[in-house]
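=== RUN LOG ===
request id: a7f3
mode: sequence -> structure
chains: 1
length: 305
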Amino acid sequence: MTRLELFVNLGYKRDPFKDAVFATADGLRVMRILTMAVESQAMVCICGERGIGKSKAITAALSKLGVHQVHVTRGQKERITIGDIECALVLDLAPDGESPKRGGEARSRQVRRIVGEVSRKRKIVLVIEEAHRMHSSTLRSLKTLREIQWMGNSELFSVVLVGQSDPMSRAGVSEVRLRTDVVRMNGLSQEEAAGYLCAVLPNHFTDEVAMRVAALSAARNFLELQERAVALLNLALADGREGVSLEDVAVLAGREQEVLPRSGRAAERKRPAAKSGDVALRSVLGRRAAADGVDGDENDITQAV
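=== RESULT ===
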């Protein structure tokens, strides 16, 4: 079953992974670094593979700091120009719906005035996602933009670049690299991965099973961990259960040709023969219907399937 169909059949009204909040060492580290960056009007690049939790960690940190965030939303990040960034600053910071000036020099003066006035009242943070796709010339121009002055003050805002790889590793941006802190996220520890599963899906994963899942190499990434949790729940449901077992984890590891660390249990214990998908699903839905006080006769359950 697909992810959403699986959770519907398990009685959920909403994807339990959606907007789940879970504290990690990476998140705490990002919070500390961004706190310093905001106070220092610095430029920081947060790097990490897809699904490692970059955006959530940055959003949580900046929300807690209460800064004025400016996001560059253009989808084609490789085509972002310094003009796009200036327009984003004007649109997000200007009072009374002031529009960006068309001319380059006029817009630069407009940005200096608007950013300068706002920065005297509140910290400003410019956030650019998928920065690994940005052109080198735009990165160099961004460095110059940060150096604008207003009323004797310079570096009026902080910059947070977010990318799957380090945009400063390419040629032609050495001067920008020297002025940028590059932070590489480490991903989930085994304990964090297990804790995440137990926190989000407590009715389906015991501590022991969650630690076993967390031993999988892909469990260091939120998205990969979620995908494997869905696969394991499908295995359990096909066998007429709502709880994931150690045997399910062994089956999944075998499919992915991954050798799990040995546990104190008999890993070679034979897994019971799986029931057919429809029969197993009827069994689970029937038990849930009975628990909810609904007449769960076989026709009704079959229709639900």
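=== NOTES ===
Residues 264-277, 294-305 have pLDDT under 50 and may be disordered.
The longest helix spans residues 222-238.
=== END ===
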